[in-house]
Design goal:
Strands 1-16-15-19-18-17-21 form a seven-stranded mixed barrel. Helices cover 20% and strands 33% of the residues. The chain has a single domain, classed as PK beta-barrel domain-like (M1 Pyruvate Kinase, Domain 3), CATH 2.40.33. Keywords: Membrane, Transmembrane, Transmembrane helix. It comes from Apteryx mantelli (North Island brown kiwi).
Length: 333
């Protein structure tokens, strides 16, 4: 063998070995990705069919106040979380503990909620920004509250927060309370019997997660003279890339490493008629138009009565993290 060939030999062997290693790593990565997408996770059955893409994530820290759009969120058994912001873990109440929502005080939708260095922040038109700690002093009293007829506790956020909300709404005295992890949540099954005994919420109406598709909103807007926004409907997860009302048929879905189970459709009320930009309650649209074509089947009237359906509630089977851009997969049995 010539010197040139002897010198080339080791280089050729090294190149071949490197190529083989690269191919092996590529196959491993591909296989891992395939396994993740194919869903060999614990308790999962069936195959996956992609049905859309996450286009928006929203957390509503204070019930009925403005939502916070976030790029990613943890999905916990009791709903979405982004840092210290947890979905509907704060609640405005009357002094006797009964909940107050935008149904009674539509201007609540004008209050923006954020978090800075462990402090919850409230902003509203013509109001000075309010800051108070997420983790409240233990000396703050725990209040007994009523949310849709069920008892639940909340720690009072203090006189300054109460005065701020009372001043802004300017109708009667109100308090603000916070649900803490040591408190007992409401059982979704006590609200709607189709939920499981393990499904629990703090101050949401009945379910940890609400999903809506962009196509459903677009279809509704083709029927309206005055278009409405996604903010009228307050979903947690907005999905694009599918047909209108396709979410109605999603029984089990996978997003990122999160598995969720469809429970019931979202029965809509006059809160959808609150203009999210002005805080003015219309009482008619888009509710009247939805009633013209989105009423339930007569066999389900015991569940939904005369309320139109728009969006779908989900319970959480497997927790994890999701982000805007994640594929949405339907688990097909």
């Amino acid at each position: 063998m010539s010197g040139a060939l002897r010198a080339a030999g080791p280089r050729w062997l090294w190149a071949a070995a490197a190529a083989a290693l690269a191919a092996l790593l590529g196959a491993w990565r591909w296989g891992g990705g395939r396994r993740r997408a194919a869903g060999a996770g614990p308790g999962r059955r069936g195959r996956l069919r992609r049905v859309g893409t996450v286009s928006g994530l929203f957390v509503y820290p204070v019930k009925s106040c403005r939502g916070a759009a976030v790029p990613r969120a943890q999905v916990t058994p009791m709903g979405l979380r982004s840092g210290e912001l947890r979905d509907r873990f704060w609640l405005v109440t009357k002094e006797d503990g009964h909940m107050v929502t935008a149904r009674q005080e539509p201007r609540l939708v004008l209050i923006s909620v954020g978090c800075e260095n462990g402090y919850l922040t409230l902003n509203a038109p013509e109001m000075k920004k309010l800051c108070f700690p997420v983790n409240l002093p233990r000396k703050n009293p725990v209040q007994n509250c009523r949310v849709f007829g069920l008892n639940i506790q909340g720690r009072d956020c203090g006189d300054e927060a109460a005065q701020w909300i009372t001043t802004f709404l300017n109708t009667e005295p109100y308090r603000l309370v916070h649900f803490e992890p040591s408190m007992v949540p409401r059982k979704s099954k006590d609200i709607i019997n189709l939920f499981r005994t393990t499904d629990e919420v703090a101050y949401p109406d009945c379910s940890p997660v609400l999903i809506l598709t962009e196509a459903s909103l677009e279809d509704l807007n083709t029927r309206l003279e005055k278009k409405v926004k996604i903010e009228n409907f307050r979903p947690n997860i907005l999905v694009t890339g599918c047909s209108a009302y396709e979410e109605d048929s999603w029984e089990e879905i996978l997003i990122g490493d999160v598995e969720m189970k469809g429970t019931v459709s979202c029965a809509r009320c006059i809160l959808t008629t609150v203009n999210p930009d002005t805080g003015v309650l219309d009482r008619k649209e888009p509710l009247e138009t939805l009633k013209s074509y989105r009423l339930c089947d007569p066999s389900q009237q015991h569940l939904y009565k005369s309320s139109p359906l728009f969006g779908r509630y989900f319970a959480v089977d497997k927790t994890g993290t999701i982000q805007v851009g994640d594929p949405v997969y339907k688990i097909v049995q």
